[in-house]
Amino acid sequence: MNDSQIFFIWGQESFLIDREIKKIISKIKQTSGEEPEVLYLDADELSPMELMEQLEFSPLFALQRVVIINRPAWLAKSRRKSSRTEDISKILGDYIQRDNGAQVLIITADEHAANNRLVKMLDKNAQVLNIKALTGKSLKDWIKEEFASRNCTVAPEGVNLLASSGQDMHYLLNLIEKISLATRDETVDINEIETQLNSKEEIKVFKLTDGLLRRDAKISFAAFYKLLDQGDHPIFFLYMIVRQFMQLGKVKYYMEKGYHKAQIIEETGIKEFALRGVMNNARNFTWKELQRLFRLFLEADVSFKTTGQDPRMVIEMLIIEICSRPAN
User: How far apart are CA 241 and CA 205, in angstroms?
Assistant: First the structure.
């Protein structure tokens, strides 16, 4: 690891990446003695020129600034060269070469696309952190610690059930918070965990909708086929997908207006335990993409009601469309 003011953080577990970003910001605060300005950029919605302008830092209002670019499409596996990729490459190269003062740039990705020229540039010039997902005992210990921090204890079989559920850590933390609030005594009943994991309306389909919001086709398809095996109907999936993307649109709107979490909760009515995941994924979709997806949702609904097309195939095509990022 070098001492660059640029961080490239990659891994599948977004919860751990978010935690690493918080550690970096906290360290900056401790070193400088002041709260740094934190700026999230949706690089996929910005033109290369707009991105370049946003990366310019003039310390008029804050001596420290942290710029975070979460999972930009231009760090994915390269399909073909494009003028946009060339422009981003030049902007990033120029940024690396100049003195950016007290600004820290953090770029994240789900995977390390070694053949991507921008990834190669970051490998050479940034502090590269591969954040690996917790598994086995480390995941179980984390679950126990989270319950303990909420003055709750959970039996080993309950910990094992959560650890083997296949859910990501944002989901598990939301579930732990929900169960802890609902538990009247200090010992969590395993039946309560089972009930929450199997809740049809909110929890059972969460893995599918979360995978879609993250644009992760592998997770989305695995969850979809598992739900089919359990006897759920594709029409129910469409309902839940549309509802989740409506929430995403609302949250994205208020985030871009500069609203804080408490204000977003007040405006949308989304529960706090569910809001975090939506906020983390709000920048995965541009407004243009969301408009296109809602047209596809309408077409899928019409297809269910007026054609003989296989409902399973309709949802499969929808998953592909949602998870496919536009070519740069």
Answer: 9
